[in-house]
Amino acid sequence: MTRLFNDPAAFVDEATEGFVAAHAWRVRQVPGGVIRSTKSEPDTVAVVIGGGSGHYPAFAGLVGQGLAHGAAMGNLFASPSAQQIYSVAKAANNGAGVLLSYGNYAGDVLHFGQARDRLVSEGIPCEMVKVIDDVSSASLEEINKRRGIAGDLTVFKIASAAAEAGYTLDEVVRVTEAANLRTRSFGVAFDGCTLPGADDALFHVPEGKMAVGLGIHGEPGISEQEIPSADELAELLVGRLLEELPEGVERANGARASVLLNGLGTIKYEELFVVYRRVNRLLEEAGVRIVEPEVGELVTSLDMAGASLTLFWLDEELERFWHAPADAPAYRKGSVATAEQIDAAELDIPDPDAIPPASEESRQSAGRVLAAIEATREVIVENAEELGRIDAVAGDGDHGIGMERGARAAAETARDAAERGAGAGTLLRMAGDAWADRAGGTSGAIWGAALNALAATIGDETAPDAATIARGVEKARDNIMHFGKAQVGDKTLIDVLVPFSETLTEQVNRQASLPDAWGTAVERAHEAAQATADLTPRIGRARPLAEKSIGTPDAGAISLAMIVRAVHDVLQEQASNG
Amino acid sequence: MTRLFNDPAAFVDEATEGFVAAHAWRVRQVPGGVIRSTKSEPDTVAVVIGGGSGHYPAFAGLVGQGLAHGAAMGNLFASPSAQQIYSVAKAANNGAGVLLSYGNYAGDVLHFGQARDRLVSEGIPCEMVKVIDDVSSASLEEINKRRGIAGDLTVFKIASAAAEAGYTLDEVVRVTEAANLRTRSFGVAFDGCTLPGADDALFHVPEGKMAVGLGIHGEPGISEQEIPSADELAELLVGRLLEELPEGVERANGARASVLLNGLGTIKYEELFVVYRRVNRLLEEAGVRIVEPEVGELVTSLDMAGASLTLFWLDEELERFWHAPADAPAYRKGSVATAEQIDAAELDIPDPDAIPPASEESRQSAGRVLAAIEATREVIVENAEELGRIDAVAGDGDHGIGMERGARAAAETARDAAERGAGAGTLLRMAGDAWADRAGGTSGAIWGAALNALAATIGDETAPDAATIARGVEKARDNIMHFGKAQVGDKTLIDVLVPFSETLTEQVNRQASLPDAWGTAVERAHEAAQATADLTPRIGRARPLAEKSIGTPDAGAISLAMIVRAVHDVLQEQASNG
């Protein structure tokens, strides 16, 4: 269990401060995370990694010469927000574009994607590689659905060494994708970890049992069995990984690979070495040439009891980059060239509170948007308790609290932005970021993403017409469906959002006014929400949360229906006031 | 708990094999432990460290360029034997002498001392520095009684950097002792660790409590309290260490120090960083200039839940050596120069089975010594169960088993040595090493030390007369008392050994024959053993084992009395046979 903390809510901020103090000559803190404290070659690609906190050395421990240029650091086991990632990437940028790399989890995919959009819109070339090494999380046919676990390290290391070598962004992407497809991991768990201040572990494995393929946040695994001997575990892990050689590696015999044996927290060094003894022998028997292996704690989950094995199949280029020197807080090899410390004054640290210029029209629109956001806050605050109650039937009961926190933060931020002259797009973006940051969880990510999609469509130049707003809602819907992977019928807010968006677009195409179109869409939304809610007592939770499905089932649908109705009232009032 | 192992008895050997396989380009295995796999400058001092296993990265993880030249690796939490240390030191020796450095625990003191004697007797200059950083284990007045904990790292690092810089052995000792006296640590524990295959942890701290100053093997601490917040823990640790500035550091304000915040196994990185945040602020407030701190797992105890803070107060020379580059499996900083791999054929690896030349007389004596050792085995095997029963009253009940394993191994080794023409001294030394290796525990260390002291006194040149044997017994007694710190009356085998040795010397000085003198001494020994044993039911265990006092109380005294009587029978028989 996690024993040492002050205020659990401040845990990540305080850990970050301590981490930076301990490694001041390698990293420095910027809004959203950390970057190298050393200068990089100008006009080279910057590699920015990130993910939830609690996985040290991932992610901040892997920032430094020869490794990543920056890491965006989310809350414990929660994706960093798009704003955090964007901000770290801006500070890390060396002029030749940014590669974002992160483990394949829904929240990370969503937020890194948004950050990328924002960077590209500002003219910073940006590409993404999501790590998919965990063979137990999806079949080979669905390799793109696999999670990222300890293979983060090999992918980040190769990307960074390629950037350090002066590769262009396209070349960095090519070699990073090659590393990603040639990295395969398989893990087991014996017990979960406890978040600071929590009463119990995130999950448990029954005493004396081992969960095979269980995810590092407790995502379901493949099977459960008795705890094997160290040798049997080695055989299980090596056997599974040798079954699945990546494309380009025809047979294990004679192939070159690096090997990572990773402890997740409380499986300690001596135990790992006992397991590695057998791993090493088995791979040698299979004819694999082992190159610079690593045995230790590379990607953890606080004090989770678990271990994973990673094989990273090399080609000549990958092997060269794997050998390349690195000097990060938690990963050092070879001799790096001495580098100057950066000058903080030269950093491009975006001020998240800065208001970009906007047209007069757009600033007037911003006032209307603010009214809609304030109406949203009112309806959520009024119904927070009821939403919690609904959520408790099928979900974990925190939907009301999360929505209330998010909506309050969004309204407060929006009012401040309006007072400081923000256009409608900027106001929506800042409100969305505030919502995501303060609400946390999946609903925070969804609402953050929705408002950001609207913001990007509306912009700060013109007053949005009905068609633009309908397009913005479509974009929000597409984003959420793309990243969250929920479909209509999964009993999530998608069940409401899809008919709402369809109707809105349809009505606008028929030249209906915005208030009228919106009103018709609200009716459809409420029918859909009702249908969804009615199912709850009969079929229970729609999709297990552990699958990181989208939204809090049905309570999310209901809160969306409430919000669009509240917004309708505002639109009507605004129309009648001229 | 420790979950991953095969045969618990093979745990350390298997972990060592895995460790060496994972770090083959930095370390190589030799009998007794590991040495660097890279060549060192000729005619430089070799730093050889060591201690029990289960503390990774201590000790083997700290072998490599810029750090130690070799590590002797004992069983889990048990000192390496003198033979192991000697063997590693011979292989690591670069021609300018050897510094042995280790934590201050009775078994380590005993065995490193013996190894040093053997190296010196072979003309290899050898000095020792025992680490004494743990302020909670003894008062400042008794600083030499303090234990070594995470301060191992600073002391080893300085010694190694000085050796690397070409310092002579005397200079290395000077700077290492300075580092030792300027390193102060203070630790806390929340729960103990479980040895592989054991049913329960070595010790427990009550749920929700924190033991202050508890030793890493469960040795008693200062007090117990509620688990504090991270900030309160930082205040406790920093406060205690600032109370006690070492000589040469007049005040904290303006002084330069490195800081180690060490996790012992399951207190994880993020927690340590939260604590370090406050440590850093407190030290800055006190005016301490922090130099290259380390936050992580530096000296562990398997999966023990605990943490310690170390302050290492620098002067100019120490700071230079602290900054010096290092490239060990678990500790890397800066850029080390590329070094060639060693040629295994050039290593001086002593063959523990080699029989040095001996005089004909000494070889005949060896036959008599063999008979005495075989008689010892007989009496122990016959009484093993009874000794276990006696030990169970006051100790942990394993005295009989340990003595039986040791005596059997000693007799077997002695017979083999005699058959291969060993002199009496060599035969005793090999028997003593075998006893220590196989018996383990404190009684193994004691009997190994006793036979080694006799061996060194007797040698391989002449047949020992009564006076030589009496001197050998005195030497054995002095060794055991010096290293074990027990006195007559502590209810250990010292209660028997002291009167036995005194009487033997007295009788020999009066010109009594060896059998007669020995016989009189045996009578005194039995009186003393009886007196010791009688006390047991009334006063219970004499000294807590956790203090690493010498011997298993009273069962050790009784087995010694049995052995000297059995040897007396052999002496009489030999005398009557001529």
TrEMBL record, chains A, B:
Domain DhaL: 367-569
Keyword flag Kinase: yes
Pathway, per record: Carbohydrate metabolism
Biological process according to GO: carbohydrate utilization; cellular response to carbohydrate stimulus; glycerol catabolic process
Entry keywords, A to Z: ATP-binding, Carbohydrate metabolism, Kinase, Nucleotide-binding, Transferase
Highest taxon listed in the record's lineage: Bacteria
DhaK domain ranges (all copies): 7-331
Pfam families reported for this sequence: Dak1, Dak2
UniProt GO molecular function: ATP binding; carbohydrate binding; carbohydrate kinase activity; glycerone kinase activity
Ranges in a coiled coil: none
Cellular component terms (Gene Ontology): cytosol
NCBIfam families tied to this protein: PRK14479.1
Protein name (record): Homodimeric dihydroxyacetone kinase
Organism expressing this protein natively: Kushneria sinocarnis
